[in-house]
User: What shape does this take?
Amino acid sequence: MSELATNIAATHPMIGEISDHAAESTFAEVDDHNRVTPAIEFRNVHLSFDDKKVLDNLSFKVMRGETKIILGGSGGGKSTIIKIVLGLLKPDAGRVLVDGEDITNYNEVQMMTVRKKIGMVFQEGALFDSLSVYENVAYRLNEQGVPPEQIEPEVRRMLRFVNLEDAIDKMPAELSGGMRRRVGIARALIGDPKIVLFDEPTAGLDPPTARTICELAMKLRDLEDVSSIFVTHEMNNLTYLCSEYAVVNEAGEVVFEREGERLCLVNSKVMMMRQGNIIFSGTDESLRNAEDPYIQKFLRGR
Amino acid sequence: MNFATRALLELQETTLLAARAARGLFKRPHYVPEIITQMDLIGVGSLTIVLLTGFFTGGVLTLQTFPTLAFYGAQSQTGRLVAISLVRELGPVLTALMVTGRVGSAIAAELGSMTVSQQIDAMRALGTDPIRKLVGPRLVALLVSLPLLTVIADVVGIGGGGVVATGLYGLTMDQYLTSVREGITSDDIIGGVIKPLCFGVIIAAIACYKGLSTEGGTVGVGRATTRAVVLASIVVIITDFFLSRGLQYLLGMPVA
Assistant: This one.
């Protein structure tokens, strides 16, 4: 393992770092008490807009390094969950914990420190139109007052991660939908947040581009130990994220392997929402075997 | 919610927004480059329309009032009348209305489209307070630019009045300017600068609030823009009345 890591470190500086870290901590992790604290935890969260119940007594946990896929039809409260984690919305009742820290009653100033740990990928990318790709990705570091000479290599590293280094000087208006989404991911990942939230990142993209986005999410999960919430209503995303994992091969390239019939090690859990309630929570295998007519309808499309 | 409750709520939210933006100006980080960009967009960008409005307003004032003054044999006082009307009322109000139309609409549309495309959420997610980053600089820019634009409009307006008075009605520039100088007092000028300061806050607060509270996609952006311009114009005109009364009270009733 460590031999492999050094190999890779020579070719891929970023992956090298991670693998080094992974190599040292493979066994230490078991005793690490920090890992017992969930990255995100909802306890009996309620939220209504006017008379409409959006979240009804919602409780769930996202463990460290886990990808929680939230499925469900439109208007089921999926995006609301993400906004609550970020503190963009406040729940009417219940507690929300990020990294074991109760953020429910945090004000905007306190939230700013929590948000530093979180990367957010918005539905349409939500890039700042008036700023170039470089300025968009550099935004968080600029605001934190990081010196410009340290920002540039970071921005390039992130853009390389999403495979868009060529677009560094373009304006968002010149990019295609998939590229905008990838720049959005690069922007979310700068500063190496340990929690990443995806809000329908593949909506409206062609299948190969959607696949690229899922691969990025898998790389984060398997190589960077990132916890994430992945909101989607597309079934192929679920298939990718639950049946494949990213590894670094001998040549130092990231490859995706199918879990096959062997022991399932893919760290993804599925949660299905309907009208503000969790109607399913577990692995993708048990989701496919679930009896619930709504779930069956969702899986088959009719 | 009925109309009165909603109006009160909006008044409260708009005031709070302006207050939070103002408070944010005294904290780090200071968004100085943003302030300068906004001053350029708002102040320098509005110069042309303000010059044109000022010049022709002054001109038409002379054009319309000279015959009446001549009827009373007071045509030599044309300059006084034009100057006082411009410095006390028309300069501040017309400049504010022009800036509302040009800048207020732009602010509401820009912030509105940022809101509907989730850029405001993204900004917060990336650790920036949009009120300090977006509202603060616009508030400062309007607060600085509007009085300057008003003074420019006043000066150009008096010039425009002079051109009409000399060109069409045969007054000499000397006569005209003498009556201008006799007519204006320092109180008029102070009042004429206090007004645009208040209007600047009103335009910035309403346009930013309407922009940031946009709902309902691109249609919502259009609606927010229209409402911002209409509301800001009306509030400017209503405030102008009460400000004028307040200034009369504070600075003493003008004699002329």
